[in-house]
Amino acid sequence: MSMMLRAFVHTGSPLLVTPVAIICRAPLGLGSAYAVTLLNVLASPVRPSTEQDRIIDAIVDARMIRTVFQPIVHLESATVIGFEALSRGPAGTVLEAPVALLAAAERVGRRVELDWLCRVQALQMAADAGLPAELTWFVNVEQASLAAACPPALMAAFTETLTRLRVVIELVERRDGTSRSALMRGTEQARRDGCGIAMDDIGVDSRALAMLELLHPDVVKLDLSLIQSPLRATGRSIAAAVRAYSARTGAVIVAEGIETIAHAHRARRLGATHVQGFGYGQPGRLPASVPAPGHLALRRHHPALLAAQ
To answer: Where do the H-state alpha helices sit in 193-271?
Structure first.
């Protein structure tokens, strides 16, 4: 683990460390002129994409990624059964938002590497948190990354965390041209690694329903549009298809975007047994302690979802 990553972990809160402080405490070995440019671009609220391109390599190399976590909750009991890890760029910069960060990495050909870095860093933080072993950890994975091998520099840390955590790979809905055969190979490898598979944002595009039968996810996450927007015929049809898939396979349904009691009621009507959203906790630092979910821990036939006996 690099000096940069140790600086994040040592503080206990990436939100409390400014990009300038991080760079000063963990030099990147860059020339002084480049370092000044990097600091200026990080501090600037708006810079051209060409300048973003010049700093994304430094961000990836120095592992300047913030990881925040949002609880996933059993709907009926409000018991926390796990967390979703969410990655951000350096705080207060134009690359803080994940969309901007991923776009910059895409432009320089390092999107897959960045995605793997986000995944492994999240799992390291989860493994080091000392929380109950029954918790399930959801990590977002780009479709292209699912089909790509772990970078050698991250392999040891990735393998070690998998021995300590129950992990679900949350496949983002965003289409990036990855073939169906590559996605199938990626999910098969993830399961050999002991991970469960979740499909995210179901409800945005009805075409995603075809992927349920292709990838056989263990968890299906309903998009917040099904929860927060007026429910139309298409949405009802998608929700019915997800319920049928869950009834046939035992897959868990998680509803996203729960902010009000009304949202929770709709999630229940749509078949969700688990929820997440601002109503149950905003993304942030991991808590110092969480009660073990016990018999409410996610159970499924894949090893990652099996509760400790």
So the answer is: 209-215, 225-228, 233-249, 261-269
